[in-house]
Amino acid sequence: KKIDYLIHLGDFTQLKVLTTLQEMFGKDKVIAVLGNMDNHQLKKILPENLELNLFGHKIFITHGTGGPNIIIKRLNKLHDLTDYEIVIFGHVHRPYNERWRDGKLYLCPGTPTDKTFTDVNSYGFLRISKGKIEPEIIYL
């Protein structure tokens, strides 16, 4: 699929993974945050959280902390997410694509590489236009 950006939610573990993605997709197209498994080199260059504004949609990007049953509550406790329409997180490695009562979309793409905390591999695809947000989990 053609993409405008590749968003990586951390746990690269080593710098080579990030630089390989930047070589493949272009440095300006790879948006990344730090994960709890990332080494000291990555800690020097990656932020813990990022904020994007695409087509007027405000997006919060973070790796996250906590187990699958508490991560969304923890995200809301640690960060003021009031003004965001979309919250994209990782850490739990389980796919999650749900719009909450307040209309906010919470999206965890899962993991395409391992099955440590999940029995499925997946990634997310997010189509964003001026009036539309279309999240999708793709299972491998």
From TrEMBL:
PANTHER family: VACUOLAR SORTING PROTEIN VPS29. Signal peptide: none annotated. InterPro entries: Calcineurin-like_PHP_lpxH (IPR024654), Metallo-depent_PP-like (IPR029052), Phosphodiesterase_MJ0936/Vps29 (IPR000979). Residues 3-130 form the Calcineurin-like phosphoesterase domain. SUPFAM superfamilies: Metallo-dependent phosphatases. Pfam families: Metallophos_2 (PF12850). This is Calcineurin-like phosphoesterase domain-containing protein. It comes from marine sediment metagenome.
